[in-house]
Design goal:
The complex is a heterodimer.
Chain A: H1 2-6, H2 30-64, H3 67-71, H4 87-118, H5 122-137, H6 140-151, H7 173-198, H8 201-209, H9 214-225, H10 227-243, H11 246-251, H12 265-271, H13 277-284, H14 293-324
Chain B: H1 2-6, H2 11-47, H3 59-67, H4 83-114, H5 117-132, H6 135-154, H7 157-162, H8 174-199, H9 202-210, H10 215-226, H11 228-244, H12 247-252, H13 276-282, H14 290-317, H15 319-323
Helix pairs in contact in B: 2-14, 3-14, 4-8, 4-11, 5-8, 6-8, 8-11, 9-10, 11-14, 13-14
Classes of the chains: A mainly alpha, B mainly alpha.
Chain lengths: ~325, ~325
């Protein structure tokens, strides 16, 4: 099922096929034993790499993260002691995630419902399905560059900042959020579609037999049933948005602080530029301009915590779903 | 007007409206190709559609020159030969997909067949977590841990001196880029292959066991063989992911438009490269110059078309399994 569901939670591990009787390792050929060992080695290596990354980031994070860092805005400075905290990047991450998922979820759910419940004409349905796979496979940097081309059109000038020469800047929270929604869309779509496909047909037939229309059935019977899958998909999509860097570098300007454009309170922030944790890490790594590895470690730790929390949320939703059904 | 909206939708209306929203996706893809192609046109037109992929000159210098060419550059200002960038992309993607695929196949077999339930309940979340770690974190670990380690311990001072007139070996380069990329794309492949191996009906492997095959033989000759389309699809999708990886690679690849020469021997794996996506991210700030902008859109078009082909290829690669009624 492709990228869209690749990172979705794997179905509950079914009980493994019991080993055939008399199938002992000692009776295997050497070649097969070697392969068996290779499998174990790969499995253990996966665990080891994961553990190494999490533990290393944890140690560095605890070492460099403190409350001061979380509560202060970043400042331009030469030494690591004068560059302030990571308040703005955290706010940027939260805002961008909310905008992105708020656009992506309705679109993805509608698309999935149409595909599963109507899906006519069939060639069009197949085109939409593979279209979403294409979106899932498109590199985020290409999506970002495409977004820049779109939002620099004069038509979208109200969404961002216009330079004195009349050129549209094309970079703002709204622009970045809209493109982020494309990154989250395939995940929400995949999860919703799986949920709808798993619903037994008699649910629908019972509703139709009562004289309900299809759309009424969808709204009152089917959608409440797949709420959990939609939530799972959204959490996965949020994880993707939180972790994306390229879109932020290209479409949010990756400025140090959140810089509002204009005077209207909320709108000005949405039209303004800013940064997220990912660009903060990128900018403060030796590859960026900041070169403040301690700050980068601290921000990366916070980022990893957010991703872990979203992962845990996916698990939690999945487990609750299993318990109640 | 408003009261009309509040009326319950009839089925026909609902179908059309929902369908229209779903078709937005197709519209976005078409727009994406059109917009990127239009913006890339000046560069492609000036350089020739195929020859700009060829070697010639230093691509970093060429991009640098473009910044100075002003708002209305002549055709000659677009001069670009992007081979080092394409080479960097192909090299990192190809090698990491090959290494990652072997690794992913064995891990997936382990998860599905050999892991005891308790071990599996550790490995599966570990794979999922590895897939969820943001690329910038991989990049950070790469540049702060792997790069110094490689630069200080693996590259001997003599080796650094031998090439110091051409490139500087500081640890960033082919080796670290491939390691980081492999760790990033392997979990995706593990997830897809695991799903496919799970979808194989137990009856098939039981049949093999009944004929006297041991667990490995049943796995390798029946399940893996039946899941071959999904393995191809996994490789294809991982390729698409690796092609587009920009940030992590820009951090660890050395960011020099240099094409390492395999004839350099072992030095080869330490030499810096610069994949396409990474050079896009790094040149975003220079996009006010029309010549640079057009070149970046040309890179984007190349990546977009390749990922399009790969996505569609992945879809078709899985068709044989779907025809057998296996949901993958």
């Amino acid at each position: 099922m492709s990228v869209a569901s690749a990172s979705a939670p794997a179905p509950a591990p079914t009980a493994p096929r019991p080993a055939p009787r008399g199938d002992r390792l000692s009776s295997w050929r050497w070649r097969h034993r070697l392969a068996f060992l290779a499998c174990w080695a790969c499995g253990i290596a996966v665990c080891a790499i994961t553990a190494a990354i999490v533990i290393y980031m944890g140690v560095r994070g605890v070492q460099y993260l403190n409350l001061d860092l979380l509560l202060h805005r970043p400042q331009a400075g030469l030494a690591q002691s004068t560059t302030g905290g990571i308040l703005d990047p955290i706010a940027g991450t939260v805002m961008l995630t909310i905008i992105g998922i708020a656009i992506a979820t309705p679109l993805a759910v509608v698309a999935a419902v149409w595909l599963v419940e109507y899906g006519r004409p069939a060639p069009l349905a197949r085109a939409v399905e593979s279209g979403i796979e294409v979106v899932a496979g498109t590199p985020d940097i290409v999506i970002a560059i495409f977004g820049l081309a779109i939002f620099q059109l004069p038509l979208f000038a109200p969404l961002s900042f216009t330079a004195s020469g009349g050129g549209v800047f094309g970079r703002s929270f709204l622009a970045a959020g809209a493109m982020m929604s494309l990154i989250a869309l395939p995940l929400v779509f995949g999860a919703t579609r799986e949920g709808l496909l798993a619903l037994p047909t008699h649910l629908r037939e019972a509703s139709w037999a009562l004289g309900k229309t299809r759309i009424c059935t969808i709204r009152t019977v089917l959608l409440p049933q797949v709420r959990r899958q939609i939530a799972t998909g959204s959490a996965l999509g949020m994880g993707r948005i939180v972790g994306d860097t390229a879109v932020v570098v290209v479409l949010l300007g990756a400025t140090l602080q959140i810089e509002p454009q204009g005077n209207v309170p909320v709108l000005s922030t949405l039209r303004g530029t800013g940064s997220t944790l990912t660009t903060y890490v990128y900018g403060n790594s030796p590859a960026g301009e900041g070169n403040a590895p301690q700050k980068a470690y601290a921000a990366a730790f916070v980022l990893l915590l957010i991703v872990l929390a979203l992962n845990a949320a996916v698990d939690f939703i999945g487990r609750r779903g299993k318990g109640s059904s | 007007m408003l009261s009309r909206l509040r009326e319950p939708w009839t089925d026909g209306q609902a179908e059309r409206r929902l369908g229209a929203v779903a078709c937005l996706v197709l519209l976005i893809i078409v727009l994406m190709v059109v917009f990127v192609a239009v913006r890339a046109w000046p560069s492609l037109h000036a350089n020739g559609f195929v020859s700009w992929l060829g070697p010639g000159g230093n691509v970093d210098v060429q991009l640098g020159e473009m910044i100075k060419t002003g708002q209305h550059p002549p055709d000659s200002a677009y001069h670009l030969r992007a081979w080092p960038l394409v080479y960097g992309t192909l090299l990192t993607t190809g090698v990491s997909v090959i290494i990652g695929l072997t690794f992913a196949l064995f891990s997936a077999i382990f998860i599905v067949e050999f892991a005891p339930a308790r071990v599996r309940s550790v490995v599966v979340p570990a794979v999922r977590l590895l897939a969820a770690v943001p690329s910038v974190v991989y990049g950070l670990i790469g540049i702060l841990v792997l790069v110094p380690a490689v630069g200080n311990h693996l590259i001997s001072p003599g080796r650094k001196e031998s090439v110091q007139n051409v490139v500087q070996l500081d640890g960033t380069g082919v080796l670290v880029a491939i390691v980081v990329l492999t760790v990033m794309i392997t979990p995706i492949m593990v997830a897809i292959i695991t799903d496919a191996l799970r979808a194989i009906p137990t009856a098939w492997t039981e049949g093999a066991s009944a004929l006297g095959a041991n667990r490995w033989e049943a796995m390798w000759t029946v399940s893996v063989r039946a899941a071959r389309p999904a393995i191809v699809a996994a490789a294809v999708l991982a390729c698409a992911r690796a092609l587009g990886e920009a940030v992590a690679l820009s951090m660890v690849s050395g960011s020099r438009g240099f094409s390492p020469n395999p004839l350099d021997g072992l030095t080869y794996i330490f030499e810096p490269i610069r994949p396409l996506a990474a050079s896009m991210v790094e040149n975003v700030d220079a996009m006010n110059a029309p010549a640079v902008r057009s070149s970046i859109y040309a890179f984007a078009l190349l990546l977009l078309l390749s990922s399009l082909v790969l996505s569609i290829g992945g879809y078709f690669a899985k068709l044989p399994m779907r025809r057998q009624g296996l949901r993958v």
